[in-house]
Specification:
Low-confidence stretches: 1-16
Bound molecules: flavin mononucleotide
Oligomer: single chain
Number of strands: 5
Structural class: alpha/beta
Helix content: 25-40%
Radius of gyration: 19 Å
Largest sheet: 5 strands, parallel
CATH superfamily: Flavodoxin domain
Strand order of the largest sheet: 2-1-3-4-5
Shape: elongated
Distance between the termini: 25 Å
Number of helices: 8
Mean pLDDT: 92
Strand content: 5-15%
CATH class: Alpha Beta
Order of helices and strands: EHEHHEHEHEHHH
């Protein structure tokens, strides 16, 4: 496939795997417990970089500077650039967050908004096309699907090929120190299963079908926009520089 040759193949062995964790809450509650249980199953050689809401950029101000002049010129670049670099550097991305109002919490959404510049319709990074992402969520009882979809949608539009998710409804058991043995066991076994699934995955060399189809459409869109531009925009320059479309 087209992308395969352009992507650096890195994920050979788990012993060298780098993990980037985005924590949607600073609270050492159920989310923290689930994430720690998950990470426990990886070797100590794995390099883990973690970000918390204090590291996440404030709400996007809507200036569109990232799209037009470069993401490094974003007013929140001091927060967005280190997170994006860690994401680029990692083999496995972990998003761990509680369900708020049936959706992802604002901390996560704030980060996702700042990452729109890396969507396929703007300036995707080919290194992300073969990464694996894991979404870990929990709620007091509501279904977790919509909250997970917030992250899934963004990652798919960035071209991430493989996204695994695991959610837990706590049935009112919301404080770790008061948690029943049954619920703790349930969380532990969910994380054993999730870690086992991730660890058994074969290295990915190709972009999967869904992002690949999105990418075909975005290439057509970029080609059409290029025709009407006196000078290629940053987005189109990115596509030209990567050899995805030809300059006129
Ligand atoms: C602001 C806020 C909104 C919430 N919204 C929901 C919700 O819509 N549905 C639900 O089932 N639980 C909701 N919860 C409960 C949390 O998802 C639940 O308590 C979760 O276990 C918290 O994880 P934590 O211990 O890591 O903070 C909400 C909690 C907060 C603080």
């Amino acid at each position: 496939m087209l992308i395969a040759e352009q992507v650096e193949y890195r994920w050979g062995e788990f012993s060298i795997m780098k993990i980037c964790v985005i924590n949607g809450t600073p609270f050492k509650g159920v989310t923290h417990l689930m994430k720690e249980e998950f990470l426990k199953h990886f070797s100590e050689d794995n390099e883990v970089t973690q970000f918390y809401p204090k590291d996440i950029p404030p709400f996007c101000v809507g200036c569109k500077t990232c799209f037009l002049h470069g993401e490094e010129k974003c007013p929140h670049a001091s927060r967005t650039v280190p997170i994006w670099s860690a994401i680029m550097d990692a083999d496995l991305l972990v998003f761990a967050y509680p369900v708020y109002a049936l959706r992802a919490p604002a901390s996560i959404k704030s980060l996702l908004d700042h990452m729109c510049v890396h969507w396929l319709v703007h300036r995707p990074e080919p290194e992300i096309f073969t990464k694996t992402a894991v979404i870990i969520t929990n709620s007091v009882g509501a279904p977790n699907g919509s909250a997970q979809k917030d992250v899934k949608t963004s990652l798919s539009w960035m071209g991430v090929s493989r996204i695994c998710s695991c959610g837990a409804g706590m049935m009112g058991d919301i404080f770790v120190d008061e948690m029943t043995k049954k619920h703790r066991k349930m969380l532990e076994s969910k994380m054993v299963k999730l870690a086992g699934k991730v660890k058994s995955l074969k290295p990915y060399k190709h972009m999967s079908l869904k992002p690949y189809i999105l990418f075909i459409f975005t290439k057509i869109q970029h080609k059409m926009v290029l025709k009407s531009e006196a000078q290629p925009s940053l987005d189109n320059k990115h596509y030209i520089d990567h050899g995805w479309i030809k300059n006129r």
